[in-house]
């Protein structure tokens, strides 16, 4: 399986890439090497190979998601540069 220069230029256009003449030839060679390698992989017999769904056998090793406040309302406002009783004061964003 090999790719010609017109196909490479079409792919470059879709990917918004620009190559000069020397880089274009180098990229064409590299792309053909990649496609040849993928073609070799497609020739392997994988009838008895089970699909890999997860990389690890571990299932749900995350901690439970429990909501709780670690900072009280007053402690949260202590270092605020500007505050108004129970709220942060910020510059006006909308008119």
TrEMBL record:
One of its GO terms (molecular function) is asparaginyl-tRNA synthase (glutamine-hydrolyzing) activity. Belongs to the GatC family. Gene3D superfamilies: Glu-tRNAGln amidotransferase C subunit, N-terminal domain (1.10.20.60). SUPFAM superfamilies: Glu-tRNAGln amidotransferase C subunit. It is an enzyme of class 6 (ligase). The lineage of its organism: Bacteria, Pseudomonadati, Bacteroidota, Cytophagia, Cytophagales. Keywords: ATP-binding, Ligase, Nucleotide-binding, Protein biosynthesis, Transferase. NCBIfam families: gatC. This is Aspartyl/glutamyl-tRNA(Asn/Gln) amidotransferase subunit C. It catalyses: L-glutamyl-tRNA(Gln) + L-glutamine + ATP + H2O = L-glutaminyl-tRNA(Gln) + L-glutamate + ADP + phosphate + H(+); L-aspartyl-tRNA(Asn) + L-glutamine + ATP + H2O = L-asparaginyl-tRNA(Asn) + L-glutamate + ADP + phosphate + 2 H(+). HAMAP family: GatC (MF_00122). One of its GO terms (biological process) is glutaminyl-tRNAGln biosynthesis via transamidation. It comes from Hymenobacter amundsenii. Allows the formation of correctly charged Asn-tRNA(Asn) or Gln-tRNA(Gln) through the transamidation of misacylated Asp-tRNA(Asn) or Glu-tRNA(Gln) in organisms which lack either or both of asparaginyl-tRNA or glutaminyl-tRNA synthetases. The reaction takes place in the presence of glutamine and ATP through an activated phospho-Asp-tRNA(Asn) or phospho-Glu-tRNA(Gln). InterPro entries: Asp/Glu-ADT_sf_sub_c (IPR036113), GatC (IPR003837). Its EC number is 6.3.5.-. Heterotrimer of A, B and C subunits.
């Amino acid at each position: 399986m090999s790719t010609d220069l017109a196909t490479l230029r079409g792919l470059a256009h879709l990917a918004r890439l620009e190559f000069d003449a020397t880089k274009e030839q180098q990229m064409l060679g590299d792309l053909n090497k990649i496609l040849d390698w993928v073609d070799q992989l497609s020739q392997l017999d994988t009838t008895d190979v089970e699909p890999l769904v997860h990389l690890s056998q571990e299932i749900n090793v995350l901690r439970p998601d429990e909501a709780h406040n670690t900072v009280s309302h007053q402690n949260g406002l202590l270092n605020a540069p500007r505050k108004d009783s129970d709220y942060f004061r910020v510059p006006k964003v909308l008119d």
